[in-house]
Amino acid sequence: xxxxxxxxxxxxxxxxxxxxxxxxxxxxxxxxxxxxxxxxxxxxxxxxxxxxxxxxxxxxxxxxxxxxxxxxxxxxxxxxxxxxxxxxxxxxxxxxxxxxxxxxxxxxxxxxxxxxxxxxxxxxxxxxxxxxxxxxxxxxxxxxxxxxxxxxxxxxxxxxxxxxxxxxxxxxxxxxxxxxxxxxxxxxxxxxxxxxxxxxxxxxxxxxxxxxxxxxxxxxxxxxxxxxxxxxxxxxxxxxxxxxxxxxxxxxxxxxxxxxx
Length: 261
What we know:
globular, alpha/beta, about 40% helix
């Protein structure tokens, strides 16, 4: 069986929301390195755009929480490159907030960014992909919070749990033309997440992860590349965990600490 080079995405067109920094930036560069054309978006154009293999991502200013803007983003990518093969719904995030006192406006903004925006962009992408002979694929970047909530993340957890459910629902509705999958990410070493590492730079966090290190953006980007390519052509409605095995149980860590003492 000749599978060629399944990671060669030459000629394919990718949209990465939130692709101007952090994980999204790395995802965009990875797809560029694989030969794809890449469009990234954000509310403001950054000083530096993702680039690889002598090419640079195209930037389109977009607030993906606005359904009309989400449609313009997808239409802009198609106008530029003639098609759309892959959508990576990466834009998201939330500061910690006390669920007892957080404002309704805060909750609405977090739900809009982490759940409604991926829905809007996926709808727009499906509109294009379903007309193509090769169809397309949507990859939703989720969070371990959907499975294992942490204090201060109630709105974010609810939104990410919704994103996981949305992934499975869309996978049912849009197959076989459009595959929809989900990546569950753990704590990832990016500049924006630095405040969550602790004073030791993340050493304590790494100590509770079976892989003994925190994830880096490349770990997520490479999983996106797999899901987008022909190796995953029968993978639909899946939730792939990219969190190093999760976290060691508290009872195990407590027992280990007690025996060490």
